[in-house]
Design goal:
77% helix; 0% strand; mainly alpha; globular
């Protein structure tokens, strides 16, 4: 265990810091909550799984050095950031143009669940701040005497697992609110405007945010 995990005092600090960071809302949490409110718990859980896979991809990228590249290359960082912002805006436009039964306060067919999973994965993967975060955060808990890549992947996986638990709590909570809103008149219209407006707003915020912030 000592080969891939730091000693207990440092490991405890890592777990505590990971929990605090995981519950702090970011683009992935906003995406999950929006999907849960607009389309219910199952859509929220599908979003959680997609975001988790995207975060894991960023953890792997940090382990092999791409996170460090994004941290030092403004061009690479901006390309990934604007690609992610454009995808969020695309999701918002698609939500506004979707048929009423597709963006409602009830879950669409299972095919749409796969698409929600895919969208969550892309949203998380194209957030360069996550890769930069892993590149800056994980080395503080790595033992130089063991394999840095193995430790980075292991600690990144633990962080993603913690974040998946907290994200699931967000999804279930928002899904419970959606169940109550589902009984309201005009819920379909509400769902479309909630999803579309939130995704477009998040995309614009991402595009205009400071390029090197990890929040």
């Amino acid at each position: 265990m000592s080969c891939i995990f730091p000693a207990w005092p440092l490991l405890g600090a890592f777990l505590a810091a990971s929990l605090v960071l995981a519950v702090t809302p970011g683009p992935g949490v906003v995406y999950i909550v929006t999907r849960s409110l607009a389309q219910g718990r199952r859509a929220g859980v599908a979003s959680v799984m997609g975001v988790a896979l995207g975060n894991f991809g960023n953890a792997l990228a940090a382990a092999i050095g791409l996170g460090a590249l994004l941290a030092v290359s403004s061009t690479a960082f901006l390309v990934v950031k604007y690609a992610g912002a454009a995808y969020l805006i695309y999701l918002g436009v698609r939500a506004f143009r979707a048929p009423k039964q597709e963006i409602a306060l009830t879950l669409p067919p299972v095919v749409c669940t796969r698409r929600i999973f895919r969208d969550g994965f892309v949203v998380a993967l194209l957030n360069p701040k996550t890769a930069v975060f892993f590149a800056a955060f994980l080395p503080q808990f790595i033992d130089a005497s063991a394999s840095p890549m193995l430790q980075s992947v292991t600690l990144g996986t633990v962080f993603v697992f913690i974040a998946t638990i907290t994200d699931t709590a967000y999804a279930l909570g928002a899904g419970a609110v959606a169940s109550m809103l589902n009984r309201m008149r005009g819920a379909n219209l509400y769902g479309r405007f909630l999803a579309g407006g939130t995704f477009i707003g998040l995309g614009l915020f991402t595009a205009l945010s400071a390029s090197r912030s990890t929040k």
